[in-house]
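seq as requested:
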Amino acid sequence: MKRSVKILIALVVLLIIARLLLPWFVLRYVNRTLADMGAYTGHVEDVDIQLLRGAYQIDELRIRKIRGNFKEPFLYIPKTDLSIEWESLFKGELVGEVECYQPELNFAFSERESQSQTGQEYDWTQLVKELLPIQINRFAIVGGRIDLTSLVSQPRADLSLQNVQGEIRNISNTADINAKLPSPVWATGDMPGYGGTMRFDGRMYLLKPLPDIDANLRLNDVQLVKLNDLARQFVGIDFEEGTLSVYSEMALDNGRLKGYIKPLTRNLKVFKLDEDEGRSVGKFVKELVVEGGTELLENRKADQVATRIPIEGNVDNLQADVWPTIFGLIRNAYVEAFQEEFDYDITFKDALQTLKEDYKQKRDERKTERKERREKRKEERRRKREERKQD
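struct tokens:
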């Protein structure tokens, strides 16, 4: 047998051995990485290497909170695919993409640490970087589920968003590098417990601690009777029937946000004369007043009560204008009904403009403060001169 043939056979054998052992080494590395996550720990059952695709798959990923009594893990993903993004590779960029199939994310909200599970204690971007040590350029969710437990604790209100589909592209900004918001994002989901649907669309710039965003969010046909636990606690009434839809546009630039929320209710009914369960006189009067207000502010032709709530400010100090909200109720009832759609009048430039206005306001305030300090110093010098003259 020729020497070259022997070398070739040896290389093939080595590649086969490496291929057989590689999943074991990767599995050990992944589990070792997941074991040390601060307040959380994780484990995977298996890893499958696909060398030709430049990818590997993680099977049965579970991440749990170490301290806490939770039935469900914080994160469960039956299958995760991490691979090289070939489209970008052909353009000279080495970046990766992640696809999660049927992921389940379980949040729990409580003032007690042992009953709270929000994930804020850990930098999850760091975990992704360690599992795929190249920049992520695309992230996708297929058939996911998000459970929010005790979103409001008293009374307890849970929310489940199911059949979640979503995608973020161009995260590393390998394409369209001159764009202010280079990363398109979309997500959809169903709310079976409340009878509604959700859709989120937008563009982002993600390469900063607080991303810049220009997006819109839509909730459709949420059944108001499903919100009665919250309505009893915070308003003291029951909904008998009706649906709620919400449309919102938001623009965020360097922490400065501008946008609106437009809630629309249809077939709203609060007061029922022969209500089955016993109710107090106070609740009877309150529901009667609310029903009367609803009749007064309802657009009869569209059979809806609606308004538009402008929101503006810094992310840690948002403000909703009251008078425009009131005028919106009146306008919907007596002038023109709000359309069950986006107004498309909020752009990223609006957030930039409010940021400039905020900067100008702060600059003017600083000028005023400096002027006041100068006047005080002048007054102090004048007083001292008068004292010296008297001496």
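The chain has a mean pLDDT of 80.
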